[in-house]
Design a protein that fits this description.
Radius of gyration: 20 Å
CATH topology of the largest domain: Alpha-Beta Plaits
Helix content: 10-25%
Number of helices: 6
CATH class of the largest domain: Alpha Beta
Order of helices and strands: HHEEEEEEEHEHEEEEHEEEH
Distance between the termini: 34 Å
Structural class: alpha+beta
CATH superfamily of the largest domain: Pseudouridine synthase I, catalytic domain, N-terminal subdomain
CATH architecture of the largest domain: 2-Layer Sandwich
Number of domains: 3
Strand content: 25-35%
């Protein structure tokens, strides 16, 4: 097995990202730095990444977390803040599939399959993600059209989303939006440009996986048929 695939199947990163990591002298084979992603790993070889021995994962795991507010979507935090890793089991090497900003709650997936992670996060694949936003007031028809077409959100970027539903009660509305780009803080920047006060933001769907009634701060392992829905030939929206 190629070394880059070995890292991917050990939950380190995708094969493409593993190429970069290997060439950054992060990986040892039998005690020596290996810079060749195509190195053929033998059964008897001992592979270490960042000094820690890694093993092939026999079981592909995808885990769903309902991320609480004020939690960082990183594996490590240098300021000792609470991260999403504090809410999931430590026994498997799992990494987040994408991220949610600190103030956004809801569905965050983790996996030990680097290639699946890359597929689900690469912009070219346009994986749909659904969010529930609570705003002051109500989106006007012209604003909904503008969001669907694309609105300038700064830093030479355009935010784009489809408004799936809007329910208004008194002076607040619950808006369901679908994103396919995943730019940093995209929904928050869209509402900022529209001068709309965003009260709360929660991700409720990722591809065909829905958050459902999972309590905030809780997690669960996805079933095999759910994991299959995330793979390339299963996504049909």
């Amino acid at each position: 097995m190629r070394l880059n695939k070995y890292l991917s199947k050990s939950g380190v990163a995708s094969r493409r990202k593993s190429d970069e990591l290997i060439q950054m002298a992060t990986t040892q084979v039998n005690g020596k730095i290996c810079l060749n992603p195509a190195y053929d790993v033998k059964d008897q070889d001992i592979v270490r990444f960042d000094g820690k021995r890694i093993f092939l994962e026999n079981e592909i795991i995808v885990l769903m977390l309902n991320k609480p507010k004020k939690v960082i979507s990183t594996v490590f935090d240098t300021h000792q803040r609470k991260t999403v890793m504090d809410f999931i089991p430590k026994k498997n090497r799992l990494t987040p599939i994408g991220r949610l900003d600190q103030d956004t709650t809801g569905l965050l997936l983790f996996t030990n399959d680097g290639d699946l992670q890359e597929y689900l996060t690469h912009p070219r694949n346009q994986i749909p993600k659904d969010y529930e936003a609570v705003i002051h007031g109500r989106l006007q028809h012209s604003q909904i059209k503008k969001i669907k077409k694309g609105i300038y959100i700064g830093d030479k970027e355009f935010g784009k989303a489809e408004v799936m539903k809007q329910l208004t009660e008194k002076n607040r509305s619950k808006v369901i939006l679908r994103l396919r780009q995943g730019k940093k803080r995209e929904i928050r920047r869209i509402f900022y440009r529209l001068k709309i006060n965003l009260i709360t933001l929660k991700r409720i769907g990722f591809s065909k996986i829905k958050l459902g009634s999972l309590p905030e701060g809780s997690h669960r392992i996805l079933k095999k048929n759910e994991v299959d829905l995330l793979r390339p030939n299963k996504i049909n929206l």
